[in-house]
Amino acid sequence: MIVLPRRVGLVAFALTLAPMLSWPAALSAQDYPTRPVKIIVPFGAGGPADVYSRVLAQHLSEALKQPFVVEDRPGAGSIIGTDAVAKSPPDGYTPLAMSNTHTTNESLIANKPFQLMRDFVPVAGINYSDLVMVIHPSVPAKDLKEFIAYAKTKPGELNYASSGAGTPYHMAAELFKAMSGTNLVHVPHKASGEMRNSVIGGHVQMAFDAITTMAPNVKAGQVRALGTSAARRSTVLPDVPTIAEAGVPGYESTIWLGIMAPAGTPKAVVDLLNAEINKAISRPDVKEAWDKQGAVALVMTPAEFDAYLRKDTEKWAQVVKVSGAKAE
Fold first, then answer.
1. Residue 20: pLDDT over 50
2. Cα(112)–Cα(107) distance, rounded to whole angstroms?
3. What per-residue confidence (pLDDT) applies to 191?
4. Interstrand relation of 224-228 and 254-262 (parallel, antiparallel or unpaired)
5. How would residue 6 be classed by pLDDT, with cut points 50, 70 and 90?
6. Which of 209, 227, 253, 300 supports an S-S bond with 243, CB 3.0-4.6 Å?
7. CB neighbour list of residue 315: distance below 8 Å, 6 or more residues apart
8. If you write DSSP's letter for every residue of 263-302 in order, what string do you get?
């Protein structure tokens, strides 16, 4: 029997143990997920990110044989929930549901505790949809031109709601202000549900909202739709003109959603999530349901989504500059 010196023995043990310690990292992508996955939505319940994340969660739970649960963490225009994910382990168990709020905040909010393209990795797109500009029925305007004329007689007296600084609703309104020459006051809310209730209840006069969530309220007569935000009319509200054709030529703005994960998440995990999300949003039943709601699937690879995010960040930096939008 050969007895090694204690130091040599420890070194030999460490060398033997090292490959074993690397096994979990090597196997994590193959075995993922082995426990529940929590999708963090940094927006309020009932909004598009919450609604569509739950669609994905159901599919991912079935496909990957582990629970995918959605947790809403709204606040500070998505900063609170997003920062929580940025500080999470990069293991695929805390993906982030995000939107063009995040690409806008890159230029709108300078002192964020994270940087989007540094602290996160793109995983997959979800969908995009039009916005609809609505007013409370008490506002004496039957169409967009009448509203613009009315607003110009009351500069600084009419309010618009949003779900926070940097959200698509905030930036759509700021772009509208800049292009229409109106002076409307921003009233940020913690979540899109609160924003929606404020304009339906007449506490604020106007709001931009996702057509996927506001269309039923328009059809019920709770609000008056003045225009939709895309280049073409929405099939969900075909009788409502686009804002561009109704009085603000060249106006266009949409809302889109996607999934990111903490930087350092294994590529194999990212690729697996991307593949399963693309399967989910390409399903005929999902497409049919989304068509009725006015949502269009964003099927992209992680690299394509990366390029999409960078281009959108540049776009909204220009809008922030032109509109003079501020983070209240």
1. no
2. 10
3. 86
4. unpaired
5. very low
6. 227
7. 103
8. TT--HHHHHHHHHHHHHHHHSHHHHHHHHHHTEEE----H
